[in-house]
Design brief:
The complex is a heterodimer of chains A (about 120) and B (about 110). By secondary structure, chain A is mainly beta. Helices cover about 0% and strands about 50% of the residues of chain A. Chain A contains no helices and twelve strands. With about 110 residues, chain B is mostly beta strands. Chain B is globular. Classes of the chains: A mainly beta (about 120), B mainly beta (about 110).
Amino acid sequence: GDSVTQMEGPVTLSEEAFLTINCTYTATGYPSLFWYVQYPGEGLQLLLKATKADDKGSNKGFEATYRKETTSFHLEKGSVQVSDSAVYFCALFSNSGGSNYKLTFGKGTLLTVNP
Amino acid sequence: DTAVSQTPKYLVTQMGNDKSIKCEQNLGHDTMYWYKQDSKKFLKIMFSYNNKELIINETVPNRFSPKSPDKAHLNLHINSLELGDSAVYFCASSTGHHLPYGYTFGSGTRLTVV
């Protein structure tokens, strides 16, 4: 079945540091890829998405590029802020039909940014 | 107005009890979901309903029974609660079960079984 593998956390950075959170996936067909963010005590919010190979999703200074050849969708931000502290989830949506229409999440990566 | 609202936000109960969690969405979405997030933050789908019809039922013990009285509501009833049921349960909705967009999550229900 479909699966998503994210780098293990937690990740602790200082403000203005560069962030990379690795994500690779296994899926049949051509899935859509997503990054979701969960702030403390809240539900998940969509951060960015990409629907086909070589698409780059971006939002709030975060970017991720859909790499079909390496089956990856790594999240990056050039300069993190304290307010970026949250749990980040990589996810895929399979389009192979039937009961496979669902969001499959990675295990989440906790990011803590210190002032 | 909260788009996807869950009640209660916190639930502490003893083993063996039966409890329900309610979810309502006011987005006009056709599809609703229950996800379970364990203590390590792993998020896994449990059920999905599209227009009140069960679409996904992921190897969940039959002590868990979802009910969708209409497409705006999806409740989760759990019988004979066990310690391992302790988790945060998230309700979500989306425009259509075959579409990858428009997922909106509730803020979660933290269930603690003691």
